[in-house]
Write a structure and sequence with these properties.
The chain is of the alpha/beta class. Helices cover 42% and strands 16% of the residues. It has nine helices and eight strands. It binds pyridoxal-5'-phosphate. Pyridoxal-5'-phosphate (PLP) binds next to β8 and α9.
Length: 236
Amino acid sequence: MANTVEILKQNLAGVQSCIRRACKVARRSPDDIQLVAVTKYAQWEWVEALATLHTVFGESRPQQLADRQPLLPDAEWHLIGQLQRNKTRSTLQHADTIHSVDSVKLLKRLSQQADELNHSARVLLQVNISGEESKSGFCPRELLEIWPEIAADTDPGIRIAGLMTMAPLGESAESARPTFSGLRQLQQQLNDCNVRPKLTELSMGMSRDYEVAIEEGATLIRIGRSLFHGLSETDT
Ligand SMILES: *Cc1c(COP(=O)(O)O)cnc(C)c1O
């Protein structure tokens, strides 16, 4: 455990220093960037150790989120991966933020259940900026069209706070830039619609490209590998 904490401390410091560097380039404050530690591949011992240093975690699978959140209830837990219809209820019970709302149907279901369960959550609309068929998410044009309607129809318990995207797997971090700037432009267009709520959050950037994402306006970055590298079975 002690060794694990030491490694995590170094990794976290490394990530924080890259965040500061990117913020300097973009003339932004590091306080405006929320680091979501993605724990989907992490052993539980590592998550526990990281919890002594950091309090915001992201899980990709709703079931693992439901299993882990009760073990660290004081942390802030986010769902970042695909949400199946039969997992919405459990996710509302375990997540503060859901990054992956990728359809009107899903948004409506969350909205209805938030009302029934008297639960609230912050949600982000996942957008498929790159247009790859393999990626889920709203198509930007479609979202612009339906935004006034879905903004008005959503239960107040579901706070639509912003947008999320995933960049295509490119050769370099730089190749993700058009996707990230595309998400920021879409945010501006949606906010120009003069509809409430205003979208303030942009969830974009993973280990390989978060510095570029910060330069392009990310407010939430989702980091897994860079936080957990150097740990293996033998370290626990
Ligand atoms: C796994 C995952 C991440 C983190 O990726 P790393 O390369 O480990 O930093 C971020 N976002 C989503 C949606 C993921 O599934």
